[in-house]
Design goal:
With 733 residues, the protein is an alpha/beta fold. Helix 10 packs antiparallel against helix 13 (341-352). The two termini are 31 Å apart. 47% of the residues lie in helices and 11% in strands. The strands form four sheets. The chain has an eight-stranded mixed sheet with strand order 4-3-5-2-6-7-1-8, sandwiched between helices. It has a seven-stranded mixed sheet with strand order 10-9-17-14-11-13-12. A two-stranded antiparallel sheet has the order 15-16. It folds into four domains: 12-199, Rossmann fold (3-Layer(aba) Sandwich), CATH 3.40.50; 207-433, 3-Layer(aba) Sandwich (Rossmann fold), CATH 3.40.50; 447-521, no CATH class; 550-723, Sec63 N-terminal domain-like fold. The chain contains 29 helices and 19 strands.
Amino acid sequence: MLKARPRKAPKLSAVEHLITEFAARYPFNLDDFQLEAIRELANRRSVLVAAPTGTGKTVVAEFAVFLAVREGLRAFYTTPIKALSNQKFRDFRDQYGPELVGLMTGDIVENPDGQVVIMTTEVLRNMLLQTPDELEKVGIVVFDEIHYLADPERGTTWEEAIICLPKHIQLVCLSATVSNAAELAEWVTRVHRPISLVFHNERAVPLEHYYFYKGKLHRFLTAEGRVVRTFPGVGGEYRRRNRNGKPAPEPSPVEVLTNLRSAGMLPAIYFLFSRRATEEAAEEAAQRSFFPTRGARQRVEEVVADYLGRLAPEDRRLAQVVRLARCLERGVAFHHAGLLPLLKVMVEELFNAGLIGAVFATDTLALGINMPAKTVVIGEFTKYDGESRRILTPNEYQQMTGRAGRRGLDERGHSVILYSPWVTFEEVLEVATAPLYPVESAFRVRYNTILNLWLRAGTDRQAVKRIEWLLDSSFRQFQLERQLRVLEEELAEVAESSRQARRARRLVQQIDRLPLRQNQAMLRSAIRTLRQFGYVQAHYVTDKGMMLADIFDPNGLIIVEALYNGRLDPLEPLELAEVLSWFAFDRDTYFFNRLGLPPHLRQLRRELDRLQRQIIAAEERNGLVLTPGFTPRFWGVVLAWGQGEPLANLVDRTGLPEGDLILAINKTLDLMRQVRDMVQHNLALMPAIGPSLLDRLQTADLTLRRGILEQSLRAMDPRPAEVQVTGAAGSPR
């Protein structure tokens, strides 16, 4: 196979001709920052583009794909979420045709050998660890939303992918505006190849900031960043010690939207931070009609009838479906992670078509998918982060307000912050004007990474050396070493002054506290744990270790232990799916559960609970927090669904939202696919049970794909209907 190698930069005239040809594809003139980044790419340099949401960073990535296709190289376009991957797949398929464009998101595998392949970043990382030869003819890789590497759960994936990518590949890294973009570029240069930074902090549509107080909109911050009004002593009355002054009434959704409509500031995205709050606020707003045009109502009715017509009669009566349909009759909607996927797609279609006046949404809507509005309302200025309720960070505020202002439609975007007796206006102003926080690494050691690198290295000494190289290359280590240099330089400046002895001691203490060798300590602890449970012995990876290398779920250690020890051998297909579903639900929320399990599954659950307690205890002794375990109250959902139980009954018997239940079943299908792929890859290690296990997983997969789940999977599938999945993931009809 030919290998893509660094190409020579074309002559200047050829570069400009190439750019002119590409720019002619667009109905607008390219911005200076886009042209700067494109020239870097045309001259064979990697590029990191940091710019606000909605400014057109994607144009740079589209040029990279254009360049790869023109030169006969492959291009991989990675995204953080499946919805964004699906969106990009549709866009590129429209541009280049279905023969050239593929999609790999785990549950969907379409044309994986295409010249342009869209994928989630996890798919690329797994490919790099297991089948790196697949990247030999790849010339360009795009990392969309690269600031995701700060995500506590998934950030490690970005770092591992960048570190492990072959050096011949050109990178295109797209990031929201972050304060340490230069540091991020410097790290990429160190671990991969030199990368040029193109920083742009000007919004495509200028943003005006308003404070909604006592029934009126008050502009307090101009698009140029000038404070034009303040409200001393307003807000936060409930938090003041003396509580002087009576708090004003808190604005209602109807009041806010009515004012926005009068000011010509609809459509709007109205952000709240709980799913229930978005639904309740939408229902309250639906007391009045907020359709943007006279003809919008009829068009909305047609679209709603089309989507709901795909559902069985019993599913049309689901509380969430009825509630949303009632809101849409008044030109408003709600959108959150617990919304049924089919309904989510419908709301996005209606809003992007300009047919509804407002969407009440959680902040997950601010991530990834393209759904701009004229106005963004910050309905709450505090959120619960898992530990405490705190005020929004400048980054969170900018992420949400990045949706305000539609390029080519609005001269100004608008951010509206509501008065709250819990938050002072001074705090609001501080967040709206504060500099952004830097991106910080969330890198951590993972069993799967250790085992895959070990298998590729051959010997334990080479393996440990390779893994240590990965850890030393992490952005976390880079940031720690930079902090050390800064502190040492400061210490050198004050060391000679006796009058600054106290400051010098403080600096020494700060240096001593830096966890410079924490990654190596975690590696040793992880290897100890793997040895304890028999995944690594002496100098080699055991059969169990090879199985775990193919499971990417954080509960992989528990799952492989259960499989290897035969605890899942006697299970029927749906029972096998039920057991795997226990690891597919990860919401940290209270709910009741009146669903039952047969006695043998109750016994198996107790055994797996003891097993996971042993694993978690071993990790704790080694200073690790890697295996989350299953959620205590989640069981019975997948078994009941597979046996034909209506979704409405599952909602009634668990108290969980419809969308959460469908999402849990969908995640179960994904985990089943991981196990199926692992068994196929390691069939020689399990000749007695492997074929039966594959058959049972396939049977369970086909049984679960029914009704509203199947309709939701079809709605999320970006491919034409004739090639959509109806059975196991990735298999065409």
